[in-house]
Amino acid sequence: MSEDPQSFFRIPRVARPVLTAVVDRSGRGGTRKVKAAFEEVAARYAEHGLRVSWPVSAEIVSMAIMGATKSSGSSHTLFVSVRAVESGLLDGLIAHEMGHMLRTELGHASHNAEVFRALSREVRIPRAAEGAFSAAFNHIQDIYADDYAFLVFSTDGDDRAYEFFSQWIEGNASMRGRNRWKNVGLAATNGFALGNLLRHGRLSKDDPLWERAHAFDREAGFEAVAALADFYAKLPEDPSPAAFVTQVNTLATVMTRAASS
Ligand SMILES: [Zn+2]
């Protein structure tokens, strides 16, 4: 036999704790709460056969966004905001961030450094659009992270996801300004919020959120949210790198059309 005996005798490895440390940089506490939530969410993912295998170190920090993940090579750093620790959304945030970690480890096109290089060569956007476009691109990654997160968070009969995203649309209404691209960026965020709910069967066609988002566009002087929500809702589950580049170009086109209308 020529095969490596190790491929026959799979010795189950002793499960190592994935979460290696939780550091509180805010001085507000919460390390135990983060550890408990992380372990609970990891256990719920394990029921679906999904496991983060690179080591994760977590930091509690004061920042404007709810959370973030930085992945490098073979480890992840999870940043959790004080606001997330102190809200009832900690498990939802961790489910979302763990979705990013799983996509990165699995090399999904949306979380793959090689594909990012192809994107920088093949997607052309106006300079003024960079901020708006990078936020809209991040929402593509968020869609793929949430395809996992919805498995373990806000499952059937729980409307936390709906409440969470409807607050985004309400919040954006007061942030509209005079900068065309900034407004298109906010419209993309509305499109993501609606598209994500739509993708997971949490939004009906006559939901009042549609009118809220249309009103945003109308007052900004364009009409983009229907196309944007449709784009995010229908992103293919596991696109090839080339198909993914095509998707990103589609988003650039939809946004550029809105900005120049
Ligand atoms: Zn995210």
Walk me through the structure.
- The structure is a single chain.
- This protein has 261 residues and is an alpha/beta fold.
- The protein folds into two domains: 5-96, no CATH class; 111-259, no CATH class.
- Helix content is 56%, strand content 10%.
- The protein contains ten helices and four strands; from the N terminus they run βαβββααααααααα.
- Strands 1-2-4-3 form a four-stranded mixed sheet.
- The radius of gyration is 20 Å and the shape is globular.
- Bound molecules: zinc ion.
- Zinc ion binds at residues 96, 100, 142, 145.
SSE layout and pairing:
Blueprint: E1 19-24, H1 31-46, E2 56-61, E3 67-72, E4 75-81, H2 82-86, H3 90-105, H4 113-122, H5 130-152, H6 160-173, H7 180-199, H8 208-220, H9 225-233, H10 241-259
Parallel strand pairs: 1-2, 2-4
Antiparallel strand pairs: 3-4
Bound molecules: zinc ion.
Main sheet attributes: strand count, strand direction, barrel closure: 4 strands, mixed
Count up the domains. Answer: 2
First and last CA, distance: 68 Å
Strand order of the largest sheet: 1-2-4-3
The average pLDDT score comes to 92
**Strand composition percent:** 5-15%
Find the count of extended strands (DSSP E, 2+ residues).
4
**H and E string:** EHEEEHHHHHHHHH
Structural class: alpha/beta
Shape category: globular
Ligand kinds: zinc ion
* Low-pLDDT residue spans: 1-7
Q: State the helicity in percent bands.
A: 55-70%
Q: What value does the Rg take, in angstroms? A: 20 Å
Number of helices: 10
In short:
This protein is of the alpha/beta class and 261 residues long. The protein is built from 10 helices and 4 strands; from the N terminus they run βαβββααααααααα.
